[in-house]
Amino acid sequence: MANATLAAGDREAWSARLKDLGFWAEWAALVGLVVLVIVFQALNPTFLSAGNIASMLVAAAILIILAVGQTFVIATAGIDLSIASTMTLGAVAFGQAYAAGWGLPLSCLLGIVASALVGVANGVIIARGKITDFIVTLGTLSAASGLALILADGKPVTIIDPVLLGLSTGGLGIFGWSFVIAVVVALVAHVMLFHTRFGTHLLATGGAPESATAMGISTERIKIAVYTISGTLAGLGAILLVARIGAAEPAANTSFLLNSVAAVVLGGVSLFGGRGTIIGPFIGAMLLVALVNGLTLLGVSQFYQPLAVGIVVVLAALLTRFQR
């Protein structure tokens, strides 16, 4: 009798959770990804083929890294609109150094440092200058894009290097090296966010900045740090982007900006700060890549793909209203 009562109580508890919109807000990205996989596999059996899965994971790697960087910023109630342009500047700096004969290691380092400096500039101006993040990162978006075009003279730099080629084509089974790097970045970010004093201070800064300051937390340093992290990860994404396409393109791809924010929203990170997760944006990035890939396999015009992504993001944003 007692067991039956407990079972009935468990069923009632699960029933109540399934009716709670907050539950769906928490698991929106995972549920959406599972639904997409089932639907696309039913419509096109090649969707879950080993080759297509490997392709999706490689395509998701850069977006995952950018989404992780964006997560750190958004968790402090900010936003980095310059992340795609920062990545482009890093790619151009990398390409110019490589073309000048600096060698691969130094060229990669320069690309990451160039992107990190944009992040530092964002953080300092926002934290010390007391200017809203939207305006500052909108300005650096344009500045980084313009600087990339000036450095490259508007021309892409083709880079053919065996190490970069191996980075884009090699891997462990279906897991390409770029995806492995993205997983490592996500794991390190998770530890930083949830198992260090820095992560605690970061979430406190986003959730209640006045209280955080009263507790002795330097919110200015936290903000500088998160934008620096975002810029640095954009630089890492630049290296993976060059490895993937074989060239340093000076034209910024704004879809990376939109999709990085979309992945964070889908992952359940609060746009008002104080709440963060790494696995959520990770799954959110996978969902967006799976959506575009599935629509491509079905022969849906590329003109409709941004519409589909936009609808998914808006629905996810509506669900965040019911987050606990």
From TrEMBL:
Membrane topology: Multi-pass membrane protein
Localisation: Cell membrane
InterPro entries: ABC_transp_permease
Pfam families named among the record's database cross-references: BPD_transp_2
Keyword Ribonucleoprotein carried by entry: no
Record has Transmembrane helix as a keyword: yes
Protein name: Ribose transport system permease protein
